[in-house]
Amino acid sequence: MRFVIVTGLSGAGKSEAMKALEDIGFYCVDNLPPTLITKFAQLCYQPTSLIEKIALGIDIRGRRFFKDLNDSLDKLLELGYEYEILFLDCEDEVLVKRYKMTRRNHPLSSENSILEGIKKERQMLEDLKEKSSHIINTTNMSIKDLKEEISQIYSSEDKKSFITISIVSFGFKHGIPLDADLVFDVRFLPNPYYIKELKEKTGEQEEVRTYVMNSPISVEFFEKLKDMVEFLIPQYILEGKRHLVIAIGCTGGRHRSVTIAHLLYNYLKEKGYKLLKKHRDHTLS
C-alpha cells in the first residue's frame, strides 16, 4: 500500500498534483477532513481492500479541522500505517500573480490582501513541510513539468504501461477513423491490388507483405515511421494521454495499410507498449 498525503500552499498546484497521481493509478480523495484520515486508512488497509495506491488532498480550506492533522498522522504511525507527505511549495510573488489571474481571494486573506493570507498559511504549514517526504517547488513549473516530476517520484511502473496504443488500418474510400490521433497515408507504396494472385488477399498474409515491402521506398518509409512514433509516443505520455490511436490508410484498406499496421504493431510490441490492433476495412471490397 502506498499512502500519500498531498498538501502545500494554496495555489501551488495541489489540484494538478492530484490529477497527475490519479493518472498513474492512485485512488484520490480531495479535502478530506484530517479527523477522518485514520478511519479512511483503516478501511483501505483491510485485507479485502482492492486499493493499492491512495492520495489524500489536505489544504487550508479545511482550516477548522487542520489543527487535528498532526494527531491523525501520529495515530497512523501508531497503527502501523506508513504514509508519505507531498508538499507543494511556490514563491510568494508567483502565488500572488496566480491569484490575480484567476481573480480569486486566498482562503486566509483579509481585506483582499492576498500576500497576507499567503504568509499566514506558510506559517501554519511550516511544521508539516518539515515532515514532508517530498517537496516540489512549482514556481517555474508548467503543468507538464509537474506531471513529469510526480511521475518520476511515485510511479514504480514502466512509463510505457501508462498508455494503450491502438493501431488501425483503414481505406480512405471508406473514410478516416473519427477517433484517430495520428493518420499516415501509405497510398504511395506498391499496390498488390493490381497483381492478380494478390488482389483477393490482404496484408495479413505474408506474400502480400513481402510484395509491399519489396521496395526501397517502403523500407525507407517504415524506418522513418518508426522514428516518428518513437519520438511522439513519449511526448503523448508526458501530456498524460492514456490512449493513442494511430491510423494507417491506403485506398481500400486491404493491402498496404494492413501491411504497415501489422509491422508497426510488431515493432511497438517488442518495445513493450500495450497495444490493440484493428483492420477496419480489410474484409470490404
Automatic annotation (TrEMBL):
Positions bound to ATP: G8, L9, S10, G11, A12, G13, K14, S15
Alphabetized InterPro entries for the sequence: P-loop_NTPase, RapZ-like, RapZ-like_N, RapZ_C
SUPFAM superfamilies: P-loop containing nucleoside triphosphate hydrolases
GO molecular function: ATP binding; GTP binding
Residues binding GTP, per UniProt: D59, I60, R61, G62
GTP-binding keyword on record: yes
UniProt keyword terms in alphabetical order: ATP-binding, GTP-binding, Nucleotide-binding
Organism of origin: Alkalithermobacter thermoalcaliphilus JW-YL-7 = DSM 7308
Name listed for the protein in its UniProt record: UPF0042 nucleotide-binding protein
Gene3D superfamilies referenced in this protein's UniProt entry, alphabetically: P-loop containing nucleotide triphosphate hydrolases
Highest taxon, organism lineage: Bacteria
Residue ranges of domain RapZ C-terminal in the record: 164-282
Claim: Nucleotide-binding is one of the keywords in the record: yes
Domain RapZ-like N-terminal: 1-155
